[in-house]
């Protein structure tokens, strides 16, 4: 009998770690290197109206930015009611409307990502 695949993911990083990554992505020069794969997305809270900035991994596909997030994170749920976002990419701010990719679109986008699983000895 086949064993179902399991994926172990790390929990949400501590706030101080996100703050450090956000700061590094704002440093001129360094943001060109780190910003190739990482950016800072700013969303507005659906109920509170509070703005949240969090580091994310992204890739560019056909002139659009695809932001990757684990389902267990909660920031992306705000896009359902407040889709306006800002994305700091390589030191420049990109404003746009975010949407949550689903079904076929999500599968097509994820097919462009390589997932590597490392089992510790």
Mind explaining what this structure looks like?
By secondary structure, the protein is an alpha+beta fold. The chain has a single domain (15-110), classed as Pnp Oxidase, Chain A, CATH 2.30.110.10. It is built from 3 helices and 5 strands. Strands 3-2-1-4-5 form a 5-stranded antiparallel sheet. Strand 2 and strand 3 (64-68) form a beta hairpin. The longest helix has 10 residues, at 15-24. The protein starts with 14 loop residues before the first helix and ends in an 11-residue tail after the last helix. The relative contact order is 0.16. The mean pLDDT is 85.
Task: Detail the topology: elements first, then pairings.
Elements: H1 15-24, H2 30-34, E1 38-44, E2 51-61, E3 64-68, E4 84-89, E5 92-97, H3 103-110
Antiparallel strand pairs: 1-2, 1-4, 2-3, 4-5
